[in-house]
Amino acid sequence: MSIAEITSCTSGLPLHACGAPAAGYQADEAAILALEFLAQRYSVGPKYLTEPAPDLTALRKAVAVALRAPDHRSLRPFRFCVVPTSARPRLAELFAGNAARRGHGADEVERARERAWNGPALIALIGRVGPNSQDVPESEQWVCLGAGLMNFLNALHLQGFGAKVLSGESVRDEFVRAAFCTAGETLVAWIVAGTPSKRSAPKAEDDVDGAIAVWQFEPALRA
Ligand SMILES: Cc1cc2nc3c(=O)[nH]c(=O)nc-3n(C[C@H](O)[C@H](O)[C@H](O)COP(=O)(O)O)c2cc1C
Question: Could you tell me if the CB of 40 is within 6 A of ligand 1?
Fold first, then answer.
């Protein structure tokens, strides 16, 4: 079973209920395979991202999954903005301008300019978090944004693409921000994406036990 087959269930039903797209298809098997595949998602830096880049169809699919993030009152406190290749020279100028304004030397300004060419695909993640919008605290809106980002990355991963989230000085630059954001929006980060040129490996073992516990509500039971 290929990942394409797993992700081809578009009926809106749970995986175990969405029929049999291929002979011998077992929905539960597909879900377990997808789960294992998700547990193997690692960031892939720009150095290891090659063509082909995710095209607009793949990116739209990832955005559709991002929109499945839990979203109190459906505020959708985030959006994605794809930087087309034709706009990279303009972005390079903005990055270089930011580095120069910060007083960096010519070498660092040049490095900043080159960062605009990072990744075969480059996407800006923009936050639209308002102070207690419709009684939804900002913290909940940021959680929604983070969940949307994670879903976006996972959806790219399931389609065979690697990606990495990067921020740096540029997201805080007023001119870069003005080029991407409208009033009240925040330029959160860049997402670089493409086809991984090497298999990613974990930097360290994940500590599942340290991240989950069963609540011991009786003090006597804690001892
Ligand atoms: C909003 C945001 C901004 C980030 N910015 C940077 C960055 O500028 N540089 C960097 O090396 N990692 C940055 N990271 C972390 C990487 O994207 C990545 O998560 C980290 O290297 C761990 O790799 P992993 O995703 O494989 O666990 C950022 C993560 C987030 C969520």
Answer: no
